[in-house]
Design brief:
By secondary structure, the protein is of the alpha+beta class. The protein has a single domain, classed as Orthogonal Bundle (Helicase, Ruva Protein, domain 3). It contains six helices and four strands. The strands form two sheets. It has a two-stranded antiparallel sheet with strand order 1-2. Strands 3-4 form a two-stranded antiparallel ribbon. Helix 3 crosses helix 4.
Length: 183
């Protein structure tokens, strides 16, 4: 399948199933109807996202699993999962039900801000000023792009502790044992 416009083309070489839908058919599609909010195209508030975290469908699931669930929030992938938990100061083994109201609010803000920042910057989730300073010093993109993702055994930009790697949901996950300690 090929989709073209004046400037770009999208080519799909292999797929099990392709459906072309009219706009009015999209909300009732069996898969799409189960997808959570898309923060890049839907109006979502941090308060609404915090309430979603408390919903019985999501509150008892570990953050490390929940953030990859497209039914919770659409578009969060593996690197954003690690970065969101770091910015929110949440250990990967915790669940929303284990968190304080402040932690939930921090998580909601981290989800919203990092999804948008990553989109605007081509995947940079680190503090933009810090990323620019590191870039100016000659640090490669892989060294300034993220707070913790893919930075195993490197120093945390905040506390200096060694970033750790673990596996959750069969995918690699990175965290700072100090900034994201279980409190």
């Amino acid at each position: 399948m090929a989709l073209h416009n004046e400037k770009k083309s999208a080519l799909l070489y292999s797929a099990w199933d392709i459906e072309v839908l009219r706009d009015e058919e999209v909300p009732s599609h069996p898969f799409i109807s189960k997808v959570g909010p898309d923060l890049l195209s839907e109006h979502v508030t941090s308060g609404g996202l915090t309430e979603r975290m408390k919903d019985k469908r999501f509150r008892n699931r570990k953050w490390s699993i929940l953030l990859l669930d497209q039914g919770f929030v659409a578009g969060i992938g593996n690197y954003l999962r690690s970065e969101i938990m770091f910015v929110a100061g949440i250990h990967p083994s915790l669940r929303p039900v284990d968190c304080t109201e402040d932690q939930l609010n921090n998580a909601a803000h981290a989800v919203m801000s990092l999804v948008k920042q990553s989109y605007k910057t081509g995947g940079i989730t680190n503090d933009p000023d810090l990323a620019q300073k590191l870039k100016d010093k000659g640090v490669k993109r892989s060294g300034y792009r993220h707070w913790v993702f893919n930075r195993e055994a490197e120093s945390c930009f905040i506390c200096g502790s060694e970033i750790e790697k673990m596996v959750a949901a069969s995918r690699r996950l990175y965290h700072c044992p100090v900034c994201q300690s279980i409190k």
